[in-house]
Amino acid sequence: MGVVVSCFLAILLWTARPLATEQEVMVFRYSATLRIFAMAMTIGCPLAVTAAVFFLPRKEDDTWPILGTYALFAGLSLPLWWETSRFSLTLLPAGFVCQSPWRGRRFMLWNELEEVRFSSMNMWFIAVGRGEKIRISCFVTGISQFLDRCEQYIPSGLAKAKAGYLLLGRAFPGGDRQSGP
After folding, report:
1. Which residues, 6 or more positions from 154, have their beta carbon under 8 angstroms from its beta carbon?
2. Handedness of CA 108, 21, 99, 124 (dihedral sign)
3. At the topology level of CATH, where does 87-168 sit?
4. 55-69: per-residue pLDDT in tens?
């Protein structure tokens, strides 16, 4: 049993590594564990409902509740699967590229980055620069490396991200600055 747990923990640590590293180019995605969970919810839950429909006794007026259950799982799990399978964050020496399934691919130079905020309600960091906002979930592996780079380029523009630092268990740079108005 201990070997199985150790192997599982080793796999989790392996999936949390950067996916590509080449001359300071790093690509980050959601962890494989979260992507597998999203896929399992998208495929597994409808299969479980289908098995229940075929193997459990039901009434003739169960059609609409069964269809509603399918719609509920599709409405909740498909967007999660789409987000976790299609998102990537690429850190480059000149800037970063954020590939989102909802907003496409966007690039921001480090010298165009004005500030980084954190939304506690949505659990994402918001990179603001040149009138554009790029949102990066705190569940993306490598978010700490992203924040390290932000600290290099805009140390004074992180005041509104303090709550995110605390959530990640990171020390906030510059001591005890307030998290904004």
Report:
1. 113, 114, 115, 116
2. negative
3. PH-domain like (2.30.29)
4. 888 777 888 888 898
